[in-house]
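Example 3.
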Amino acid sequence: MNYLGRASWLLFLVSLVPSSLCAQVTSERLLHANDEPQNWLTYSGSYASQRYSALQQISATNVKNLELKWVFQAQSLQKFESTPLVVDGVMYLTQSPNDVVALDAKSGRVFWLYHYAPSPAARPCCGIVNRGVAILGDTLFMATVDAHLVAIDAKNGHALWNVKLAEAAAGYAMTMAPLVVKDKVIVGVAGGEFGVRGFIAAFEASTGKEAWRFDTIPKPGEPGHESWRDRDWEHGSAAVWVTGSYDPDLNLTYWGTGNPGPDWNPEQRPGDNLYSDSAVALDPDTGKLKWYFQFTPGDPYDYDSVQIPVLANADWNGSPRKLMFWGNRNGFFYVLDRATGKFLAGRPFVKVNWASGLDANGRPILTPQPPGAPTFPGIQGGTNWYSPSYSPRTGLFYLSTWENYATIFSGVNADYHEGQRYTGGANTSPIPGADNPVGQRQGPVNTYTEELARGAVVALNPETGKPAWKFDMHDVNTSGILTTASDLLFVGGREGYFQSLDAKTGTLLWKQNLGGEIIAGPISYLVDGKQYVSIASGNGLFTFALRE
Amino acid sequence: MTEAEGLSVKLRWLFLRASLQCAAFCTVLALCGPAANSQGQDRAPQYFQSDIQYGAQIFTSQCTSCHGENGDLIPGVNFRAGQFKRVISDNDLRATITTGVPGTAMQPFTFGASELTGIVSYLRNMGSFNARGMMMGNASRGHALFEGAGNCAGCHAVNGKGPRVAPDLGDIGALRTAELIHRTLIDPAGSMLPANRPVHAVTRDGKTINGRRLNEDTYTVQLIDEQEHLVSLTKADLREYTVLKSTSMPSYKDKFSAQELADLEAYLLSLRGVK
C-alpha cells in the first residue's frame, strides 16, 4: 500500500470509531452494516446477505502472509456450522447444542459462556447444530434445537426471556441464526423430515411476545391451499432453517422454504404443494405474504429451497433493477425481481436431468428419470444451504457446488406418526456399496473419493448464468463463501482446507489445512487496525490475520 | 495429471499386477463401506442372498430357542408372516435386537454390523427363504483355501501375518456384509472402491511411485507403495499422476466351486478383529 493508500485507510478507520465503539447495535446500525466493515453484525454480514466485506487490508499480494492468530475449541463433537457475529471487538459464537460464547475477537479469550440445555425430546434431522445468533441493542437472540427462542444479555450472558415456538417432540427444531428487522426477531422452524407444518414467526425483541406467524403451508380458505389434496397439507413440512434477507426500501423480508413432506413420495401429496421449495417475500411488520416464487413444484427429490436469498442492485438488460440471486439445491441458478418475484432468468450450474430447463415463468420442464435410474443432482443438491457470496466489485455470484452428483430416488407410502420420520421412501447412491452422502463424512478418509461427486467453487455471471471461472475440489464442497473489497474469496470444503482465491480469476492464492470439515461460512472483521478472517472447521473456530 | 481408466498405461502396470493380484481383493473388500450405514436416513430395503443366508445361520444358533425355527413361538410375533409387535422399519428391527425389550426375555444382543444386516435380511425374507438350497460354508476349509488354492495370503495379512501391500483382513467379517464379500469374490473389478485404486505417480525429478491409494484430496494423495512405505505426495510436485480403475484381483467365480466360495466366505466372515 502506498502512502496515499495508507492515509486514506487510516482516515477511514478513524471515521468509524466515534460512531460504533461500544455503542449498542441499533436497528439503524443493522440497516447500514456495510458502513462498518470492522464488524460482522448479521449472519450474512448485511441485510442483502452478500457475505461481502469492504475490508481490504488482506489482499492478493499479502494473503500469503496470513497466519493463525487464535483457535477456539468447541466443547462439542457436533458439526460446527456457526457464523460468529463481531461487534466492536467482541465476538459472539454458538457451539452445539445451544451455548453462546462471548470472546475477545483479537485473542479468542472468553468473556462469558451461556449454556442452554435443550429438551431431550429435540430431534433435529441432521445434527444437533446451531448456525449463530442475532443482535439488537445489547441483546442476543438464539433459536434452539428444541424450538425455543432465547434472548441473552450480550454483556453478561444472562438469559432475559425464553419462548417456546412449537413442540420438539413433534419434530420441530430450530437451527438457524435469527434475523432482526426493526424491533422484531424473525425465525423459522426446521422439521421437514418429520411432517411438521412449517412457519416463519416474528417476536418483539424486548419482550419475546409473538408479533406474527406466517404458515408456509396455507390452510383451507387461504390462497395457495388449492395446491394440496385433502388433508395432505397438515403434514406438508415446508420447513425454514436458514436465515432470510431484508430490503428496507421495499420493506420486504425474504426466506427460502424446504421440501414438502413426505420427502420422496409425491404420490401422497399431488399438486404443487405451496409454499414448499419457494422464496417467500413477507412484510416484516405484519408477516403478510407479498409474493412467492416456487422453484420445485411437487418436489420428489428433497430439493429444499433453503438457501440464502442474495440481494443485489445491478443492471438487468441495461436498466438498474432490484435483483435476487438464488443458487438452488435443484441445480438451477435463478435471477428474480425482488420487488415482484418475477422470474427473470434461470440456468443449471451443475449437471441436471430431472428437468430439461425452465419455462418462461421459471417453472421446471420435468424430465423424471425411470425407476432405478440416477437423478442429477442428488439429494444433497447441486448446492445446499452453504452461504454463497456476491461481490459488487466483480459483479459475480459465488457458489459452493457438488458436481456430477446423483441419487436414485424411490417413493413408498408413509404413515404419519407424530415425532417420527416421515420421508416416504428412499435415496440411494448409484455407486455400488456407497452410502449416499448426507452432509458429513464420518471420518477423515475420503473413502469414495471422486466417484460420488466432486466439489467446486463456481463464479457465475448473473446476467448469463454462465461460469466466469470454476475452482475444482477433489471432495465435495460444504462451505460458505466470503468475498472482500480486495477481490479475495475465502472458502473451505469437506477436506478441511481453508483457501483464498482471486475472486476475479479463481486462482488459488493461499491455503491452510485446518484438519476438519468446513461446513460454515467465513467472516472478516477488524480490531485495532488489523483485519481478521474467521472460519469454523471440525470442532474449532480458527482466526487468521497478517503476520506482524 | 489425469485420472483415467489407464488402458494406455497397462503395459507399465504389468509388473504391478503381479504384486497386487491379491492386494486388489482386499482393496475391494476393505473399503466397501460400512456394512450397515443407515446414517439415520430411511432407505428402501434391499436384501441380498448372501446376507439372508448368513442371517439364517445366526438365527439358527442365537434366536430359535425363544422364537422357534419358524419364528412364531412368541405370541404376537411371526417372522415368516412379517408380524411384529413394535417394529416398523429395518432400523426399528436393528434397535430391538441391539437394545432388547425391557421386561421380556428379549435380551440386548451385541452383534456387529454385518451380523445385524444378515439377521435383518433373513427376518425380512424368512417367508420365502428355502433353507434346503442354502450352501453352508465351512470356515476351516475356507481358511485352507485362503492360504492355499486362493493364494489370498500371498497378498493379504490377517492380523499382522502376511504382506501389507493389500489390506489386512483380520476384521473384514466385522466390517463387511456377507453380500459385499460374496460380490467381491465374484466381481472384484466391479466391486472395487475408488479410494483403494492403484495409483502411479512420477515426480518432477523423475522418481516413479506405484502403490495403493489410501486417501486423496484436492492437493495431495496418500498411498502405501510397493515397499510398504506410507507415502504422501503433493500433486503440484508430480509430473504424472494416474489412477487405475482396473483391479489385478482375479475373479473366483470360475476358479472355485459354489461350495468353495461358501467356505471362503465363511472364513472371511469369521475374521472379526483382535478382541
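The interface with chain B takes residues 125-126, 410, 412, 421, 423, 425-428, 432-436, 438, 444-451, 472-475, 493, 495, 497, 511 of chain A (CB under 8 Å). The mean pLDDT of chain A is 93.
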